TrEMBL record:
Its cofactor is Zn(2+). Keywords: Hydrolase, Metal-binding, Signal, Zinc. One of its GO terms (molecular function) is hydrolase activity. It comes from the Bacteria. The active site is at D267. InterPro entries: 6-blade_b-propeller_TolB-like, SGL, SMP-30, SMP-30/CGR1_Lactonase. This is SMP-30/gluconolactonase/LRE family protein. The keyword Translocase does not apply. A divalent metal cation binds at E59, N211, D267. The lineage of its organism: Bacteria, Pseudomonadati, Planctomycetota, Planctomycetia, Gemmatales. Substrate binds at N156. Residues 57-320 form the SMP-30/Gluconolactonase/LRE-like region domain. Pfam families: SGL. It comes from Telmatocola sphagniphila.
Amino acid sequence: MRFCRILLLLAVIFVPGASAYGQSKTLGKIVSNGPEFDALVPKGTVIEMLAEGKFKWAEGPVWSKEHKAVLFSDIPRNKIWCWCESKGLETYLENSGYTGSAPFTGKEPGSNGLAIDAKGKLIMCQHGERRLATYDGKKVENLVDKYMGKRFNSPNDLTIMSNGDIYFTDPPYGLPKGMDDPAKELDFQGVYRLSAKGELTLLTKELTRPNGICLSPDEKTLYVANSDPEVAVWMAFPVKEDGTLGKGKVFFDSTKWVKNSNPGLPDGMKIDKSGNLWATGPGGLWVFNSKGEHLGTLATGVPTANCNWGDDGSTLYITANDNLVRVKTKTKGW
């Protein structure tokens, strides 16, 4: 989920009859590997452009039923945007990841991954504050910011289990100097669980750059993306009865695609009701079945950070570099 400074030339196609707020454009192309993908994304489907150029690096989309809108982070600009069909793009929250009075010296001060809990509160991974925080529409409050007395690196993405437990990743991307930052207090990059009772558990520290994270529909598998160009993999961990993890295995290795100059790395992801994984990665957003078979790609052609289900659950909203796009599918998110 890191901010990419590569300049990209983006070709856009105009679609007659589309409505306002940038929906008259499309991005990239859709590549099917067979009928299993076509059943999810029918032929002729396009990647609709909703908003572009107003933000630097879009991340962490989440659907708000209250606002009937998608909220998403703009990490470099330290804010959360709101996009809805009727009003288009508006600012939702300023200082979403860093609230200090001193200037932030790094490039990624803002919030990153977002989720909404059962009570309707927005849960934010805050880079600048190095914590998980909640926002109820009025005030931001700390949820957790330390492990064993040491500050997190910069919490990146999260997923919430049906019992209220929060699973989240903690790579160093939000630290001004990354791995070499003198303020880094932990000597690893962890995956954690914050239980609904407030108990924090380190689940694994084996990954070099843990990033996107999501649960299978039966909550028995935790998927974690590793955004390391040398080991660009999606991992699958069995979830034990007590909520901790068993030994993980590589779900899919995209390292060769990264090394072949496809823009982006394994990043944010979501699951659908059938257990298919919709995972941002090199070249766009990859779709896998639960066996790890690559079904097809939403080939945005730009670094693509994250995605989430919205509307009636069948629309996939995607943050792709400085673009917010969507794809209408024939499945529903979980």
